[in-house]
């Protein structure tokens, strides 16, 4: 039993059965005119985040999407169309649909092309926030493929030597198939931390380490409430300036913005809108699928990556009390645990998603397994 | 006139004319049985690094390659062969040839495939250290393509929560074509700093910031000489532990190791050898070329990326005395400058490469433009 994040304090959380949570989320979205199949995709992606210990991207975001539909920014029945394609590439117009649906479909297209030809690259415009990037990389790993998934996102980060929120946290996920679970899954924002972590520290009344966030004037902040109330910004991976490689993190955010925004015709930088803004967000994604078997026989690759995992797990630890983790391993173990003992949901969040359903006439059928985490 | 790095102190350097430097380096390699065309590729890559202000990867590394040939680890007349291929992918065996030649040829293959089909992925095994990754990304940008280039490298970094040198600085370069120079070129190691920076601080007798390097026991070091003499290790981008995202930098190094090493059949982690070791280095590379025009019309992309560059350059600066840089811009300006006023070469390095030539009976024809930098 392992959980990447501990619900603290436990009495503020309940444990819910994940299938019932997923089904409920799908019902809520269906009631907003989202086709059943699409509602299930979104519900799967949101609940996967909760299962994997990435609660910031889980069902607590449900309202973001329902409001997006209600204000008209998200089209619940969007047509996803291929604007241009070759045997190995496609440019997709997401029609301002739910980002999860658009991304899921885009990866299906990428996988199909890679299966027939070896490698594929798919760009997406007119999409929305798609939740956790890793979910779509895992679509590829299930097919014996390497999946690379990027998205741009609303600007929350200050590009190196600048102030203000001017570039997204632009995450990248890369997944590799493995013989034994867990698959190797790297999934990270290109900022030092996600904004959710600042929110968590604010809630817990803790200071943040100097080097996570900047004031609008360019001062390092240690009060997380100031970051949130004064539109402070996050620092790129590598931190402030160039001394510890902040320009590398900012550079990664920039290349992801070019691939997802510039190359596809989507928005970029501070022009990327939030899901609940009235204007279309026009988020862009970029995905690559590589059929392993076209490069090395899949069985050789699977043998080799197991050896590589052993190599990493066997490295000399810095102290006895620590653990060496393969990317994706913590999330996988957390998922296994939570499928058994339930997903911890904060009572306020549970109330919020219950109310969302009530407003829409959807019966609350989430099974509570335990009244505390 | 701009230079990314200043030759300090100037009196220890000379300025040399870059074409004569390149030709001389090619002559030296030719005299070691490297075919003329291959010798020119290596010379171009090395001198490009000096022109771009990445001296750590410039002609000061010439001896590394000549020794590699002399000890038999590098095969000067290697056959580069395609082990497996599809319309969009290839696995290449570099035959333990010079990494620059292998990488250059691999990118040529990637470009050809991408031109006919849209996107390509090429893995390489049995190669050697290839110098600056960005050089090969620029091969793609010259053809209106996006070039993505990765390599693994000798282990110098400690994976998060471990000690010792156990994973490479594994760099990644991504280049985009632009209407106006410079092309956008991101090129960065996934460690906080390259080992060359530690060497520079040691030479200058300066302390390094806490957070760059680790002792073999896992203590943060501030004496660069200790890093070098006691086989200390570099920290991944994001630094020590997980607080500032060190696991993200380590995760990036790991996915590059999997793509370059595990997927291709090359070595990985601490099994990657140095160019001058007796054993074959078996370095692996991984490259992707994307033909922009297959996704968005090249002319639209070129218009859009110029606007994007303007967007970034126009961001609010943190102070009046600073500059906001596009990835690759500093290197490009440095190259323009050095093509005019000469490449600064440390007098000891000049002596070293002169001696290399003398041993091999190659006349020293490097034109010295100025006896100081």
CATH class of chain A: Alpha Beta
Biggest chain-to-chain interface with counts:
A-B, 81 and 81 residues
Low-pLDDT ranges of chain A: none
Structural class of chain A: alpha+beta
Q: What is the percent of helical residues of chain A?
A: 25-40%
* Domains of chain A (count): 1
Order of helices and strands of chain A: EHHHEEHEHEEEEEHEHEHEHHEHE
Overall morphology of chain A: globular
Oligomer: homodimer
Biggest sheet layout of chain A: 7 strands, mixed
The chain-level mean pLDDT of chain A equals 97
Account of the protein in words:
The structure is a homodimer of 373-residue chains. Chain A is α+β, with helices and mostly antiparallel strands. Chain A has a single domain (10-192, 235-304, 328-370), classed as Malate/L-lactate/L-sulpholactate dehydrogenase, NADPH binding domain (Ribosomal Protein S8, Chain: A, domain 1). Chain A has eleven helices and 14 strands. Chain A has helices at 18-30, 36-51, 62-71, 99-117, 134-141, 195-204, 224-229, 246-262, 298-313, 329-341, 347-360, and strands at residues 13-16, 81-85, 89-93, 119-127, 145-151, 155-157, 167-168, 172-176, 184-188, 213-214, 233-234, 283-291, 343-346, 368-370. Chain A has a seven-stranded mixed sheet with strand order 2-3-4-12-5-8-9, sandwiched between helices. In chain A, strand 2 (81-85) and strand 3 (89-93) form a beta hairpin. In chain A, helix 4 packs parallel to helix 5 (134-141). Chain A is globular and about 50 Å long. The first copy, chain A, starts with 12 loop residues before the first strand and ends with a strand. Chains A and B meet through strand 3, strand 4, strand 9, helix 8 and strand 12 of A and strand 3, strand 4, strand 9, helix 8 and strand 12 of B.
């Amino acid at each position: 039993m392992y959980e990447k994040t501990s619900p603290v304090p436990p009495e503020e959380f309940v444990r819910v059965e994940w299938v019932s949570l997923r089904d409920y989320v799908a019902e809520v979205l269906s009631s907003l005119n989202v086709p059943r199949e699409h509602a299930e995709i979104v519900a799967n992606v949101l609940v996967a985040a909760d299962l994997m210990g990435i609660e910031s991207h889980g069902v607590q975001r449900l309202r973001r999407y329902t409001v997006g539909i209600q204000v008209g920014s998200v089209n619940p029945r969007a047509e996803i169309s291929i604007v241009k394609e070759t045997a190995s590439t496609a440019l997709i117009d997401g029609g301002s649909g739910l980002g999860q649906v658009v991304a899921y479909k885009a990866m299906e297209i990428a996988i199909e092309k890679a299966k027939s030809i070896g490698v594929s690259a798919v760009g997406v415009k007119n999409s929305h926030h798609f939740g956790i990037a890793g979910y779509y990389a895992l679509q590829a790993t299930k097919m014996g493929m390497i999946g690379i998934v990027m998205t741009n996102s609303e600007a929350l980060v200050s590009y190196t030597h600048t102030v203000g929120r001017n570039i997204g946290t632009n995450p990248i996920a890369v997944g590799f198939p493995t013989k034994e679970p867990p698959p190797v899954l790297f999934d990270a924002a290109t900022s030092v931390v996600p904004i959710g972590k600042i929110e968590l520290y604010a809630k817990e009344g803790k200071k943040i380490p100097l080097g996570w966030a900047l004031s609008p004037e360019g001062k390092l902040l240690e009060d997380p409430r100031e970051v949130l109330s004064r539109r402070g910004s996050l620092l790129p991976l590598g931190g402030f300036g160039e001394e510890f490689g902040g320009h590398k993190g900012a550079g990664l955010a920039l290349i992801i913005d070019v691939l997802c925004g510039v190359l596809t015709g989507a928005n970029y930088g501070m022009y990327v809108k939030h899901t609940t803004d009235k204007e279309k967000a026009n988020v862009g994604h970029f995905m690559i699928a590589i059929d392993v078997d076209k490069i090395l026989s899949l069985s050789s690759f699977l043998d080799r990556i197991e050896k590589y995992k052993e190599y990493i797990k066997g490295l000399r630890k810095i102290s006895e009390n620590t653990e060496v983790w393969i990317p994706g391993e913590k999330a996988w173990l957390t998922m296994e645990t939570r499928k058994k003992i339930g997903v911890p949901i904060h009572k306020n969040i549970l109330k919020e998603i219950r109310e969302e359903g009530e407003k829409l006439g959807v019966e609350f059928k989430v099974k509570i397994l335990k009244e505390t985490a």
